[in-house]
Amino acid sequence: MKEDLKQVDRVEITVLVDNYIDIFVPQSTGVDRRLPFDPSREIMAEHGLSCLVKLFCGDEQHTILLDTGLSKNCMFWNAGILGISLSDVEAVVLSHGHFDHTGGLYDLFKKAGKDIPLVLHPDALVRRRLNNPVRGPVELPQVDKAVLKKAGADLRISSGPSSLAGNHLLVTGEVERLIPFETGMPGMEMNTDGTWVSDPIRDDQAVVIHVRNKGLVVLSGCAHAGIINTVRYSQKITGINQVHAVIGGFHLTGPVFEPRIMPTILAMKEINPDYIVPMHCTGWTAINRFIENIPGKCILNTVGTTYSF
Questions:
Q1: Do 112 and 87 form a contact (C-beta atoms < 8 A)?
Q2: pLDDT in tens, 83-112
Q3: Could you tell me where the DSSP H helices lie in 239-307?
Q4: pTM for the whole thing?
Q5: 8 Å CB contact between 168 and 57
Q6: Bridge-partner residues for 220, per DSSP?
Q7: Percentage of residues in the chain with pLDDT exceeding 90?
Q8: Residue 222 contacts by C-beta under 8 Å, 6 or more apart in sequence?
Q9: Helices 261-271 and 227-238: crossing angle, nearest 10°?
Q10: Nearest in space to 276 (alpha carbons), one of 29, 42, 84
Q11: Do the beta carbons of residue 205 and residue 95 sit within 8 Å?
Q12: Strand partners, 153
């Protein structure tokens, strides 16, 4: 079923948390706005992701937050350094329930002093662990529903697509998985009725914006469903084939995922977005191969960069 997604005149995505910082990276295209060189600016990076999404549509303006990083502090610290007030956030989208996306979640709602919608898939609340065949299982921090509600989160739990910002932003919900080489993350397990079973990370979801005369901007957290699956599903549920930008984590880091890098690049070439901004869990090897194989379209991200589409 086609989802109603209104067009925006412009979207600005500011990266509050990501794995990589380099104060010498220059602006590479007309869409990335880098921080001016300042040796006294103490901006931080960590293994996590948080992006502030600002939508401009006529006289309307909306601010949505995707994810909140790994630690309790990094997102808030960087927002302060960048002069960004998180009090303008009207809703939060949780891309999935992993710890490197939820670190600042509770404090965000506590500091807001008001109820704010939090859009998440029901599986974002399950117990999880990573079962490494050599080191054994390590249980991961869990998102606590009761604590979130107490902190002021207005929980919007859904496995299907949903809209925010007056239908100017679409949350994909659970992503359809059709691409053969995008087979999830080995070793992930979830607890179901007291039993540990394989975790397909069904809660993985992305946000989608339709920029007037440009096409879709698809912003992923980790793309555990596969970044190609994510973009193709976004095209399907919006009925819009033109893709302007694909941005966020693509989860191609480490030896298990390296065989997927070139198939992903070839499939991305077929989609043919104007811009590609791999972040977070995409991994250094994959980011370099994207830049080598899709020159002029792939942008190296650094914390604090704002992308204007």
A1: yes
A2: 999 999 999 999 999 999 999 999 999 999
A3: 261-271, 284-293
A4: 0.96
A5: yes
A6: 206, 248
A7: 94
A8: 49, 95, 96, 98, 101, 204, 248, 249, 251, 280, 281
A9: 20
A10: 29
A11: yes
A12: 116
Using an 8 Å Cβ cutoff, are 196 and 189 in contact? yes
- CATH superfamily, domain 7-308, is Ribonuclease Z/Hydroxyacylglutathione hydrolase-like (3.60.15.10)
Share of the chain above pLDDT 70, in %: 100
Structure tokens, 248: 């966020």
Q: What are phi and psi of 57, to 5 degrees?
A: -145, 100
Give the pLDDT of residue 18.
98
Domain spans in the chain, listed from the N-terminal domain onward: 7-308
Exposure string (b/e) for 193-219, b if CB count within 10 Å is 16 or more?
Answer: eeeeeebbbbbbbbbbbbbeebbbbbb
Residue 298 DSSP label: B
- Over residues 40-76, the pLDDT tens digits come to 999 999 999 999 999 999 999 999 999 999 999 999 9
Confidence band for 26, pLDDT divided at 50, 70 and 90: confident
Let me know: does 179 contact 250? Beta carbons within 8 Å.
no
Distance CA 107, CA 113 (A): 10
Alpha-carbon distance values, 120 to 129, 192, 239 (Å): 19, 19, 23
3-state secondary structure of 243: strand
